[in-house]
Specification:
The complex is a heterodimer of chains A (284) and B (294). Chain A contains 16 helices and no strands. Chain A is an all-alpha fold. Chain A starts with a helix and ends in a 5-residue tail after the last helix. Chain B is mostly helical and 294 residues long. Chain B contains 14 helices and two strands, in the order H-E-E-H-H-H-H-H-H-H-H-H-H-H-H-H. In chain B, a hairpin with a 2-residue loop joins strand 1 and strand 2. The chains are: A mainly alpha (284), B mainly alpha (294). Chains A and B meet through helix 1, helix 2, helix 5, helix 6 and helix 7 of A and helix 1, helix 4, helix 5, helix 6 and helix 7 of B.
């Protein structure tokens, strides 16, 4: 590389990284503002919004956090528990089922395979929101209202994850499967012992996306969950937003604490995230 | 050996079974019920077929408002959330690896936060008082104070699009990054040898080879744009002044759950599905997705 291009290269860095950094700060700003607001009384926030004096708290008072555990008979902890249970089951089960289907569509040639794949693509384009009404009447008939399984049941298979696992499974060399067959493994054992471990990056990438979707799911639990004790975090926090909720002390610190688990999951699986997405990915 | 072959024949169907069951129970059946309900007057206890009456009632002022909000919101989100993440993906695809992955994570962070949390922060940052962060900045340049939520269609749309931009930029960035990483490095090296400058390389190599990803992101954006509900619900709880935040799903929710007219709500659901399908297919045609030589 000549001296001239190297100098140009350096000066490009001096424009690029400050630009990227400034944008990143802008993206982080609302989250920082949320964290700082936790130390403000709910009444001030309701009256003035987040002000510049909110962003630089004079005192660090943690009473909003203790209020989370104690306020309204610990209702916030109930919501937290509900969200944790639902997200764990939904993420785990939909990863399991979707990977089975995606794997099946990716590695086997069988009658109806293309038809099933077209159905997966079709389902990807159906807005789930329009299915809400019939699912609602269905849930009433099945007795699933206000229960965990009522929230879980319709969304245990994710068409997006199926699509993703299929793309990933196509890339697995057939020799691995044949080696397993020679060793006397049946097709299901091959999945559990050989291919599932090979798909670990795909599981990592999908774990983040599924957990994020499930933790933040709004419309369906809003309809299924009826009693205050059964609400999930987003729905519970939303009730605090209404004029009648009037509980901004719990809302702000509650919103901040609600974001902790999902951000933790992200950092935990992050290294799989990019590699998983790239290898499976949305190639043409 | 015979039993091995028979498991091999059955196995793919066992693997596919969860989808087949879910498709029949939670997609096909509900769609059929939706179509049926659209021809019915659904009152608890006495449901009656009323032919095309619901379809005759589709176009009213609420519907036109929802349609307008849907089109503007979808257009604006695509106009921002496709080109901007592409530029940032290109910037983050070269240079210092460590620094890039830190930036990537920072852009992605907002998408992890639930829409309720995001909406709450935005409501407080964009509060109508002149003390709130955004209005106090605007005051410095002599504007405001703006009543963002209740001050008319323009600030309302601005707020919804901004929230979407904040939440989804990082996700689209990741899609485009994974698309970029599938482009062979040799192409750029060859182009550089031929004396192509970075701008030429971007338009001649990057953009054409990124086409599948652009198609994918545009498709999910059309889908997400028209099916938008939660952002608006967090801001106005379903009751926005002059319908500035009313979306198609909002209309479905209003007719179905707030007014109890499941028949009419189903009709709107089908209308939404037709809009999303038509636009997606049109867009795919426009991009030449159905041409075999691609």
């Amino acid at each position: 590389m000549t001296g001239g291009t190297q100098a140009r290269f350096r000066s490009w860095w001096l424009i690029k990284y400050p630009l990227l950094f400034a944008t990143a700060l802008l993206f982080l700003f609302p989250i920082v503002a949320l964290v700082m607001s936790c130390f403000k009384t709910g009444r001030d926030l309701m009256r003035y919004g987040i002000t510049f004096s909110t962003l630089i708290p004079q005192t660090f008072d943690f009473k909003n956090f203790t209020y989370l555990a104690e306020g309204s008979n610990g209702i916030y902890l109930d919501w937290y528990k509900n969200s944790l249970i639902l997200t764990t089951f939904q993420t785990g089960l939909s990863l399991f089922f979707s990977s089975l289907v995606g794997y099946g569509l990716g590695v086997y040639k069988f009658a109806g395979r293309n038809f099933l794949f077209v159905l997966v693509l079709f389902v990807l384009l159906v807005p789930l929101q329009i299915l809400i009404l019939p699912l609602y009447t269905m849930m009433i008939n099945l007795g699933g209202m206000d229960t965990y399984w009522g929230v879980l049941l319709p969304f245990l298979v994710s068409p997006f994850a199926i699509f993703f696992f299929r793309q990933y499974a196509i890339g697995i060399p057939k020799d691995y499967l044949d080696a397993g067959r020679v060793d006397g493994l049946n097709e299901y054992a091959i999945y559990f012992k050989i291919t599932a471990p090979l798909m670990a990056p795909a599981f990592g990438a999908m774990a983040i996306l599924m957990a994020q979707q499930s933790w933040n799911q709004f419309l369906w639990p809003l309809i299924v969950m009826r009693t205050t004790k059964m609400l999930t975090l987003p729905i519970g926090l939303n009730t605090l937003l209404t004029p009648y909720g009037n509980n901004y002390n719990m809302l702000i610190s509650g919103a901040a604490m609600a974001s902790v688990p999902i951000i933790t999951v992200f950092f935990f699986f992050q290294k799989y995230f990019m590699s998983g997405l790239t290898t499976g990915g949305i190639k043409g | 050996m015979k039993s091995l072959n028979s498991t091999m024949r059955i196995a793919p169907y066992v693997f596919a079974a969860p989808f087949i069951v879910a498709f029949l129970c939670f997609y096909l059946y509900p769609i059929i019920i939706t179509i049926l309900m659209s021809f019915q007057n659904v009152v608890p206890g006495q449901t009656s077929f009323i032919g095309l009456v619901n379809y005759g009632k589709i176009v009213d002022s609420d519907f036109l408002d929802a349609l307008r909000v849907g089109f503007i919101y979808t257009f604006l989100t695509i106009a921002i959330l496709v080109p901007v993440p592409i530029i940032f993906a290109v910037l983050l695809n070269s240079g210092a690896r460590r620094l890039n992955s830190v930036h990537r994570a920072m852009y992605f962070l907002p998408s992890l936060v639930s829409v309720v949390v995001a909406g709450t922060i935005f409501r407080l940052l964009f509060a109508s008082t002149d003390k709130a962060v955004v209005n106090s900045l605007l005051k410095l340049v002599g504007i405001g104070p703006v009543d963002w939520l209740l001050g008319g269609a323009v600030p309302a749309m601005f707020l919804m699009v901004l929230l979407a931009t904040w939440r989804w930029s990082g996700v689209n960035l990741i899609y485009f990054l994974s698309g970029l990483q599938a482009i062979p490095e040799e192409l750029y090296e060859a182009a550089q040898m031929d004396g192509a400058n970075p701008i030429q390389r971007f338009f001649r190599i990057t953009l054409p080879l990124l086409k599948p990803t652009i198609i994918f992101v545009t498709t999910i954006s059309i889908f997400g744009g028209f099916a938008m509900f939660e952002e608006s619900y967090i801001f106005w709880q379903g009751l926005s002044p002059n319908n500035v935040g009313l979306t198609m799903v909002g209309l479905l929710f209003k007719r179905g759950f707030q007014q109890g007219d499941l028949g009419m709500a189903s009709t709107y659901g089908l209308v939404l599905m037709v809009i999303v399908f038509t636009l997606s297919i049109l867009q795919l045609k426009l991009f030449g997705f159905f041409r075999k030589e691609d």
